[in-house]
Amino acid sequence: MKIDIYDTTLRDGSQAENISFSLEDKLRITRHLDELGLDYIEGGWPGSNPKDMEYFAQMKKENLKNSTLTSFGSTRHANNKPSEDPNIQALLESETPAVAIFGKTWRLHVEDALQVEPEENLDMIFSSVSHVKEAGREVIYDAEHYFDAYADDPEYAIKTIRVAAEAGADCLCLCETNGGRLPHEIYEITAKTAEAVDTPLGIHAHNDSACGVANTLAAVRAGAVHVHGTINGLGERCGNADLTAILPNLTFKMGYETVGKEKLKNLRRTSRFVYEVANISPDHRKPYVGDSAFAHKGGIHVSAVRRNPETYEHLQPELVGNSRRVLVSELSGKSNVLQKAEELGLDIEDRDEVTKIVEKVKELENKGYQYEAADGSFEILVNELQGKHRVYFSLDGFRVISEQKEDVQRLCEATIKVRVGDQIEHTAADGVGPVNALDKALGKALDPFYPELKEAHLTDFKVRVLDERAGTAAKVRVLITMADQEESWSTVGVSENIIEASWEALTDGVDYKLMKTRD
Predict the structure, then answer these.
(1) What is the pLDDT of residues 96-130, one digit of tens each?
(2) Are the C-beta atoms of residues 396 and 417 closer than 8 Å to each other?
(3) Whole-number Cα distances in Å, 217 to 5, 184, 214, 249
(4) How far apart are CA 53 and CA 394, in angstroms?
(5) Using CA atoms, how far apart are residues 275 and 280, in angstroms rounded to an integer?
(6) What pLDDT sits at residue 70?
(7) What's the rounded Cα separation, in Å, for the pair 412 and 434?
(8) Which stretch of 8-22, 128-142, 373-387 has the lowest confidence by average pLDDT?
């Protein structure tokens, strides 16, 4: 039996504290989610902010291979007709094949939040869903606070979703919005609801009682065939149900068809990518995809696992793109390197080369480097270790001056000296910050030799402190993203000096562009 998987990382996940995805972040994550094979990707709420509107405009140029792009919004305002409601019109103008509309289910919200009569709320649901459905879109109706509403007034809760079904909704997603219900409650209410309506049911669970995944699985057992969640469980308050656990549980433990077993081998890679783009340190104890999920340390466990992994592992780690780790000897790593090399089209089939690359990656990751979301730097590293990387330029030195005067905008000036072949270029440039000034100075120095660099530009810049206890002396990791008309790529730099780390990431980005155009 097939269970449709609906990802809301870009919408519900972005509502998590300390997370703010840039437009470029959202586009990159979308491509990874599509590659994972998810059925639906909820891109955002086009009527709520300019960034989401621009995202949907950009997505009209993209060609998703596996996923259906979905926009999200509410039922019409009580005083508006659907044809005149700005939110409904924004949903239609996003031109997504599917639209998710949420409406009020709980009388508490109807009367206290919306301040409308219960019958008026039913009309708002019906008219909104029917208007979008008549426009030719697939409609997923999100019944907000459904389980709390059912516990309070089951008759009215059922009425709200029946109205959505009568209006043409393709799926009725039961939302456990406050995240406080337990699995036995979710099962019972979902089962009773399935008896009351014929339209397929979905489940959207939050994790406030640490039951997001369990509640999702309980709803599926009770008849739900459409599952919402986010990568790594990102979301408001305590987060959403975590797809990195839901997917393998449904597939390998419960026997349902989801994205396909072959695509699930990308699960860990997708998890790490989203962590890195969100600028969050990965949870190494996260089930299935964490570093420690299949790690064994000393004694009886290691001895047994070396004889038969089933003694202390509930699943083969390779099924979810992870690998076994024996902490005393670090036996893992080759499969991950080979997988990424294959993805990037790199030829490193020679065993000695693979071993050398694995050892170098481990050495650098121990120093703070992270290659999960820095494919550009990884490809450069592989080429360097194979002796294939060409030196396009070298640094003789640079200096950055930052001047601050009262009531005057801060001025940064970078002076740089680089060597290209036997020629030396000595240039300077101003910028709004030290990295911007360096970027401009480097571009000015290299332009006479490599004019194609004008096509490349910086699209994102992230800094993460690696050891907070060290204070201002801590190492930092800088991740930058660059793009041209053909593609985007990311590179990484690490140092106790933020300017040096930025320079390393920046020059890797330039190297990558030249490698693709000159080699």
Answers:
(1) 999 999 999 999 989 888 899 999 999 999 999 99
(2) yes
(3) 13, 11, 5, 8
(4) 42
(5) 5
(6) 98
(7) 6
(8) 373-387
Into which CATH architecture does domain 393-449 fall?
A: 2-Layer Sandwich (3.30)
Residue 102 forms beta bridges with which residues? 74, 142
| In contact, 100 and 142? CB cutoff 8 Å | yes
Superfamily of segment(s) 4-277: Aldolase class I (3.20.20.70)
Q: At 237, is the secondary structure helix, strand, or coil?
A: coil
Task: Reduce the DSSP state of residue 199 to 3 states and report it.
Answer: coil
Q: How many other CB atoms are there within 10 angstroms of residue 155's CB atom?
A: 7
pLDDT one-digit tens code per residue, 220-278: 999 999 999 999 999 999 999 999 999 999 999 999 999 999 999 999 999 999 999 99
Supply 444's token pair.
Answer: 């000015």
Provide the residue ranges of all domains of the chain, joining segments of one domain with +: 4-277, 294-331, 393-449
Per the rule left: phi > 0, alpha: psi between -120 and 50, beta: everything else, 270 is: alpha
Q: Print burial letters for 350-381: b (CB count within 10 Å at least 16), e (below 16).
A: eeebbeebbeebeebeeebbbbbbbbbbbbbb
**Fold topology of 294-331:** H-NS DNA Binding Protein (4.10.430)
Copy the structure tokens of residue 176: 């456990």
